[in-house]
């Protein structure tokens, strides 16, 4: 019996004797199956290969990034947010080993895990069991959980305060339960972690909003308007996405300007071609 892991998206499945017939995350239109076909591995095999390690980097006071090298699965970055004796793992990555666990325990461990959306569920249960931490997932994405666990807490509504200054906001769009994280990190302005519910573009001056990034399916204007309106009510100066792209300042303003440009493009008001 193995907990099989999809090599394309990195999501771990419930224990089974044989490999699953397909990955329901990848066969859905927001993701994709590799051109080389559906392939599976296990976390034990990844660790035993000796090919991977997690690089844990301090980004600023109270914030560490966690990145697997070389890249595995989608290649997202997870973040350890340290706030008032409360450590939150924001989003997840598949690879976890003894060295990773030791290093994070030296940083105070993990008190809770929160996910932006199903593409980053990865081996979230392995992380939860290693640190005895609850996993917070919005109930609207319950159907996408591939490995059930008593550690998973399905929360409801539009907002969940995990700790004063640490707030989850359901914004939808990319997934119905898509969530962003507000961190009021004892500064004048806060930081917004967005996974790829909102994605920072190449020049770090704009963001975009998509239903599917690999398949280039945009979100409709009414959804982007709703997301922009919701983000306008949150206090943040900095924005960090799932691929280590950061808007360091004026991020709230840049998000609103980006939303307006996106909507204008879809409504045929931005350009003629």
- The total tally of domains equals 1
CATH architecture descriptor name: 4-Layer Sandwich
N- to C-terminal distance? 56 Å
Strand content: 25-35%
Topology of helices and strands:
Blueprint lengths: L3 E3 L33 E3 H7 L3 E8 L2 E7 L8 E6 L2 E5 L7 H9 L5 E3 L9 H8 L3 E4 L13 E4 L3 E5 L2 E5 L8 E5 L7 E3 L5 E2 L6 E2 L1 E3 L4 E2 L2 H12 L5 E3 L5 E2 L3 H16 L7
Keywords:
Metallo-B-lactamas; single chain; Metallo-beta-lactamase, Chain A; Metallo-beta-lactamase domain-containing protein; six-stranded mixed sheet; alpha+beta; 19% helix; seven-stranded mixed sheet; 273 residues
Question: Can you put this structure into words, describing what you see?
Answer:
- The protein is of the alpha+beta class and 273 residues long.
- The chain has a single domain, classed as Ribonuclease Z/Hydroxyacylglutathione hydrolase-like (Metallo-beta-lactamase, Chain A), CATH 3.60.15.
- The chain is 19% helix and 27% strand.
- It is built from five helices and 19 strands.
- The longest helix has 16 residues.
- The radius of gyration is 18 Å and the shape is globular.
């Amino acid at each position: 019996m193995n907990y099989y892991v999809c090599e394309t998206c990195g999501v771990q499945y419930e224990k089974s004797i044989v490999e699953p017939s397909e990955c329901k995350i990848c066969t859905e239109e927001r993701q994709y199956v590799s051109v080389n076909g559906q392939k599976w591995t296990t976390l034990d095999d990844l660790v035993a290969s000796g090919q991977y390690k997690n690089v844990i980097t301090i980004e600023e006071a109270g914030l560490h990034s966690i990145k697997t090298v070389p890249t595995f699965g989608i290649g997202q970055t997870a973040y350890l947010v340290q706030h008032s004796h409360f450590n939150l793992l924001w989003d997840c990555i598949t690879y976890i080993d003894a060295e990773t666990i030791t290093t994070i325990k030296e940083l105070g461990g993990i008190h809770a895990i929160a996910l932006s959306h199903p593409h980053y569920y990865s081996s979230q249960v392995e992380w939860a069991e290693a640190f005895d931490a609850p996993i917070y997932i919005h109930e609207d994405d319950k159907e996408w959980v591939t490995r059930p666990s008593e550690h998973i807490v399905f929360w409801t509504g539009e907002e969940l305060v995990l700790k004063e200054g640490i707030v989850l906001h359901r914004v939808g769009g990319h997934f119905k339960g898509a969530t962003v994280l507000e961190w009021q990190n004892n500064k004048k302005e806060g930081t917004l972690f967005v996974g790829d519910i909102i994605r920072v573009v190449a020049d770090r001056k704009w963001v975009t909003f998509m239903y599917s990034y690999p398949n280039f399916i945009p979100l409709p204007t009414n959804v982007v308007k709703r997301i922009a309106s919701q983000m306008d009510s949150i206090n943040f100066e900095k924005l960090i996405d799932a691929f280590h792209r950061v808007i360091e300042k004026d991020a709230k303003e840049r998000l609103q300007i980006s939303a307006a440009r996106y909507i204008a493009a879809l409504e045929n008001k931005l350009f003629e071609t």
